[in-house]
Amino acid sequence: MDESGGDELYRKYSDALILDDLRSYLQQRFPDFTPEELERIIFNLSNSGAATDYLALRATASLCVNGFVFSRDDLSLPNQHVDYIDFENPHANIFRAVNQLTIRELGVERRPDILLFVNGIPLCIIELKNPAQRQVSIFDAWEQIHIRYKRDIPSLMKFCVLSAISDGGSTRLGTTYAPFEHYYAWKKVENEEDAAAGLGEMQTLVKGAFAPERFLEIVRDFVYFPDVQEGQQRETEIVCRYPQFFAVKKLYDSILGHLREHGGDGKGGIYFGATGCGKTFTMLFLARRIIKRTVLSPTILIIVDREDLETQSGKLFESSTDFLGDDSIRSFDSREDLKTELLARQSGGIFVTTVQKFCETTGLLSERGNIICFSDEAHRTQLNLGEKLQIKDGSEDGKAGAFVKFGFAQYLHDALPNATFVGFTGTPIEETVHVFGPVVDKYTMKQAVADGITVPLKYEARLARIVLDTEKAQEIEAYYAQCEEEGADAEKVDRSRRAMSKLEVILGDDDRLERMAADIVVHYESYVAEHVGTVSKAMIVSSTRPIAYRLHEKLKAIRPEWFKPKRVADESIFDTPEKQAELESYQSLPMVNMVATRGSNDPKDMFELLGDKSHRQMLDREFKKPQSNFRIAIVVDM
To answer: How far apart are CA 271 and CA 447, in angstroms?
Structure first.
């Protein structure tokens, strides 16, 4: 990579592109093009734009990654695909790092500290702060890029798909549309190394992400823009974190080495990722790489274990048709619909479904070998390949007798015998290896905490003492005596479960709930006061829905102001047109909400509070938004 000072280059201050580098690359790549044709190709890039700065960046990034079809001046010659970057032959490109390049636009001059150019295109902007200056920080570097540069020199920023900030002690990589908290350190050059920290983060970023070949890999397959929306466009741009990058590369190689149609065993491997590590985006990046960088023309099946996961995965993939290069992306409501779709095609398509839907009926879905299944949360029902004996008395469906019932995963493998399976899990256990193969890569909770991706889990014992009267104590003793008599006899499990409800006498004691509610209020308020500037969310887990509802009501009696619906805690921070548009996406909610399913015999107030499935999904979305007024969730241990 060449290094240059901004004043060393012969150029106009208004030019964001280094035109000499771009012409040199194009002349070498397309030697039979006329000078006029080359100028048209340059004009096509330099004048790319859209209705907003964000859409201009998205359009420019697409041009740089995908190229375009060029019509020759001589109409007798065929159209030709033109790439501004040669991703297949990295050494055919011109790489240049420029320090203090002056950019002038509408009478304003700005000088970014470092710009990284490929063939004269500024793909990454880097802002540095002096660690000796105590009054400045890495956040000031972020503000300089995201406020000053985006405001004053948009002609440059429409090319910068990546952004890096550093104050010497901390170095972070992100995008020009990523919030500060979504900038992360790139802590490794190779996956097998120990993670760097502090001063070492700059070195690992330069060698691990900005080395020419690695830089092109990231720009090509690991920078995500969602599909363009009608109406209000959400300005989202995401670059992978280093554990996602290495996981995708290793899983990609493992899948290709275990494809059944190539004589493999169909066990593509397991990715063990800690909670919050971004497994869904890892699947997205992996899907793009398999679709774009192989000749398989695969059908990718995303198999999840819960409806809320299905919603999360389905929405992400369905809004990524441009990124994945496939318009056939959808979630399936039934196994029969999935079967119809698979029979109608021999390639392509990305489908999201739950593993439970494979038990609606059994039988073959497809024998194709180019089906690749991503199993989310693979430690759960998807690894159940065994069988069990089920005795029916005919009271439910009129069928009486002994029936062999297989696990969900057995039906799945029977339906897709030649598919290749990849497991994504946060809880690796021995059985997953038998289904998906060995762990290909892992990112532990300890690593996630060290990287600031996941907050540490801490346990603090807090007791809500209760005093039982003689009658209640006798009920409990009778319950334990009954359990001892019944042992583990399967025929009496249901009766034992009904007896278990006696324990609600303890857990639902009214005095206990009052003390617990008071303690939660004091603890939460003191924690928030000690952590000013930090978003503080809490989750309360209850043993039953009635107890959860009673706790909800006791909290409401203690802090009624917590239950006044608002969109966010402080609307004054939404002080720009872009933030005002974001504010409109928030739902007005109390600070405390109970998230649980309704029961047909729930009291009226409880029934209305819990709402239907769409209400629960809305609460799920809002709780994940950092600024939402919804701060405390009461859930039930099912």
So the answer is: 15
Over residues 339-377, the pLDDT tens digits come to: 889 989 999 999 988 776 666 567 788 999 999 999 887
Angle, helix 19-29 to helix 35-46, in steps of 10 degrees: 130
| Top-confidence residue, 552 or 497 | 552
Q: Using CA atoms, how far apart are residues 433 and 394, in angstroms rounded to an integer? A: 38
Residue holding tokens 């741009």?
A: 237
Does the predicted model carry a pTM greater than 0.90?
A: no
pLDDT computed for residue 26 by the predictor: 96
313-327 burial code (b ≥16 CB/10 A, e <16) = bbebbebbebbbebe
pLDDT at res. 54 = 93
* DSSP conformation letters of 20-78: HHHHHHHHHH-TTS-HHHHHHHHHHHHT---SSHHHHHHHHHHHHHH-EEE--SSTTSP
Binning pLDDT at 50, 70 and 90, where does residue 307 land?
Answer: low
**Which residues, in sequence order, are bridge partners of residue 632?**
538, 592
Residue 98 neighbours by CB under 8 Å, 6+ apart: 3, 4, 5, 6, 9, 18, 114, 115, 117
* CA-angle at 220, arms to 92 and 78, nearest 5°: 65
Beta carbons within 8 Å of 146's beta carbon, 6+ residues apart: 176, 180
